[in-house]
Design goal:
Subcellular location: Cell membrane; Membrane
Radius of gyration: 20 Å
Strand content: under 5%
Main location: membrane
Number of strands: 0
Organism: Nocardia rhizosphaerae
Keywords: Membrane, Transmembrane, Transmembrane helix, Transport
Shape: elongated
Helix content: over 70%
InterPro entries: ABC_transp_perm/SBD, MetI-like, MetI-like_sf
Order of helices and strands: HHHHHHHHHH
Number of helices: 10
Length: about 220
């Protein structure tokens, strides 16, 4: 523990920078994945065939090993942030897309009919009624995706991606040296802590944006 604490104290500035880059990459990827997944979900949720095809495609992407996906992206996007963000967005799609389809499909038809009865057009109905009612489900998918890509981002060090993965890879590559284990362990623990912190932020977002009647 003394070696671990000494390492954290001596590298605290670099650890802060790496943690910031890790969270930044996850948040950016999550926002992009949410936009894409919700748009696709809105387009396909009324079609059982379309919904099945979209979720199957997103599921197929999720089965591709992260090293393999990064390796396929590097020739087109190079090393660094580009392939990292694209890979994270692709991996984050399935939970958000599936929950978007489920949330929109679960909206009470009586509510939809009542909204149409007062003159709401399709776009107004979607933005004012269906998406707000589906938001708890969408947010739950975002929470799942956040936890998932938090860990996957560590592997992006293979493609020179940002974040704490570089710390872990560097430590593992120097096993046997005095700081190797503290370095890898620090990176791992920080990823867990940051994942829990982001999940807490999303829970708070849910409490602020989901009406109590829906939340309860």
């Amino acid at each position: 523990m003394d070696a671990l604490w000494s390492f954290v104290v001596s590298r605290r500035e670099q650890l802060f920078v790496d943690s910031y880059l890790h969270v930044s990459a996850v948040v950016q990827s999550l926002l992009l994945a949410t936009i894409v997944a919700v748009l696709v979900g809105v387009l396909v949720y009324r079609s059982p065939l379309g919904s099945a095809a979209a979720t199957a495609t997103a599921g197929a992407i999720l089965t591709v090993p992260s090293f393999a996906l990064l390796g396929l992206l590097i020739p087109f996007l190079g090393l660094g942030v580009g392939p990292t963000i694209v890979a994270l967005v692709l991996y984050a799609l399935l939970p958000i897309l599936r929950n978007t389809v489920l949330g929109l499909s679960a909206v009470d038809p009586a509510v939809v009919d009542a909204a149409r009865g007062v003159g709401m057009n399709r776009l107004r109905l979607l933005t004012a009624i269906e998406l707000p009612l589906a938001w708890p489900s969408i947010l739950a998918g975002m929470r799942v995706s956040t936890q998932m890509i938090m860990g996957i981002l560590a592997l992006a060090a293979y493609a020179k991606g940002p974040g704490l993965g570089n710390l872990i890879f560097s430590g593992l590559s120097r096993l046997g040296s005095p700081n190797a284990v503290p370095q890898a362990l620090t990176g791992t623990v920080l990823i867990v802590v940051l994942a829990l912190a982001l999940d807490g932020v999303l829970q708070l977002l849910g409490r602020l944006t989901i009406p109590r009647g829906i939340r309860d």
